[in-house]
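Quick check before the chapter quiz. The format below is the same one you will see on the exam, so make sure you can read both the input and the output lines.
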Amino acid sequence: MAIPPDIEIAQNAKLKPITEIAKGLGLSDDDIEPYGKNKAKISLEVMKRLKDKPDGKLIIVTAVTPTRTGEGKTTMAVGLAQALGQIGRKNIVVLRQPSLGPVFGIKGGACGGGYAQVLPMEDINIHFTGDLHAITVAHDLLTSLMENHIFRGNKLDIDIHSILWKRVLDIESRFLRNVVAGLGGNMGGVPYETGFEITTASEIAAIHAIAGDLMDLKKRMGEITVAYNNGGEPVRASDLDAVGAMAILMKDAIKPNLVQTLENTPAIIHGGPFANIAHGCPSLVAIKTALKLAPYVVVEPGFGADLGMEKFCDIAARAGGLKPHLAVIVATIKALKRHGGVMYRELKETNVEAVKKGLPVLNQEVENAKKFGLRVVVCMNHFYTDAEEEIEAVLDWCKEKRVPAAFTDTVLKGGPGGEELANLVLEELEKPSDFHYLYDLDMPVDEKIRTIAQNMYSVADIELTSEARRAMRKITRLGFDKLPICMAKTPLSLTDNDRIQGMPPEGYVLPITNLKPSTGVGFIVAYCGDINTMPAHPSKPAAAGMDIDENGVIKGLS
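Here is the expected output.
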C-alpha cells in the first residue's frame, strides 16, 4: 500500500494549538512558554511543583542491532504513543531532538514516519526552539576563551598538545575533522592542531541531557576537562572563568520542548547527545517532567538494546533515579536478514532461512533487557517488502521462547496499527519488574567494561591497548575511576567491526583502544576502534533533494 511522503502527511495534519495540548496535561498558561502556535517550552517549575506526585510507568523503546538505515525505533515509539491514545490511555512520548547533520546527510529527519510522526515536523527537524544552537555557541565560547587564555600568557600552563576541547558545528563536514588553528602571525594566535565535531558530540550536549536543572547544568559545565597542563593535571572550564557566560547561553535550552503527534497526543522532544561517544538519550529533565504529567511515558534512546538501552539504564537511569519497567524491542525482517548474512542489495528478497539465522541477535537483545530486570515485548515493525512466511518465522520463534510479540503497522495505519502492541504493553506493565544496574560503580574500570562487553555483546573478553591502559592509570590517579562507562563503538554490529554480522565469532576479543573521562557529564568513554565524531555527507546528501517554494512550503524533508 503506497502512502504519501512523510512531509506531505505532516503538512496535511490538523494540529491542535499547543496551549490545548498543554491543558490536556494539566498545564496552565503560566507553565509554558509558546514558540508560535505549535510548540512550547515547559517551565522547570512544573517538575518542582509536582515533585511529590507518583511517577508514571516508564517504557523504553529500543531495537535489535540495526542496519545503517535504522529499524524505525522513533516511528514505533510515536506509533505506540498514538496507539495508547487510541485506547484511551493518557501518555507522553519523549524523544531526542534531530541533529541537522543527519537531517541533511544520509538519514534524513527523525520525527517518525508515515502516519506515526511528531509535529510540526519541519520545525523539529530544522531549528526547533534553538537548543542545538545554544549548545553550539556555549561550546565554541569555551573554545574561544581557552585560546584567548593561551594567547594572553597561559597562566594555567595549558599544554597545547593535550587540548581535548575542539570546536563544534551542527552540519556534517569531513574537511573540518582535522584543522590547524592560530595561523596568521603574532596577532593570529598560537598555532595548534584541532578540529570540529558535530554539535551533538559536544560534552555540553551530553550534560544538557543529564542535568537536573540550570544550576546543575552550570556546575557540570564547570567540571568539563578542556585540556591538561604541562604537569598532566586537568584544566577545567571553571578555571577559565567561562561557566557563567555559558550558563546564560543555556538558560532556555534546559527547558523541555512540548509538541504533539500526528494524532494530537503530547510529545516532549529535548536533548540528543551523540549516541556513540555519549549516552544518546532524551534529557532527564524531559523524562522526569513527563513522568509527573502522565501515567505512561514512552522513551526512545539511540541505537540497539546492546548499546543505547544499556547506556540508558546504566548511565541516564542511574543519574536520574529512574526505574524503567519494560523494554519494547523493535525487530525488522531486514535487520534479521542482514544479521543472517544477506547483503544490503538483497534485503528485499524473501529469505526465511536468513531470517532464522538472524534470530540469535534478537535473542541477545531480549536477554540484554532481561539482565536489567525489565519486562520485554518484541515489536515487529512492518515493511512492505516483508513476506508473510518471514513474519511468521519471527512470531513463531517468539511464541516458542515465550516472549510477548506484536505485529505493528503504525506507518500505514497510525495509532490503530499499533493497538495490538499497546494492549500487550499494558498487560506486561501489570506484571512485576525488578530494574537494576548491570554493574557496580566501585568495580575497577576494566571490569566494568568487561561486564558490559561480555553481557551485552556476548564477546569472550576485552583487550586494552597500551594507550588505553595508560589512560586507565591516569583516570584512576585523578580519581575518575568510579564513574559509569559509556561504550563508543559501531552500532551496526555486536562487535567493534560493522562487517561482522550476527553473533560474534567464538572467542572474539573486543579491543578497547582508548579511554577518556567526560568529567562534566560524569562518565568514562571507552573507545572500541576509531569512532568518528564529525560525520560526512554521502555521495547524494538528503539536502540535494530538498527545496522550498514561494509560499514557504518545504519539499523533500523526511
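If your answer matched, good. The domain at 26-130+253-429 is CATH 3.40.50.300 (Rossmann fold).
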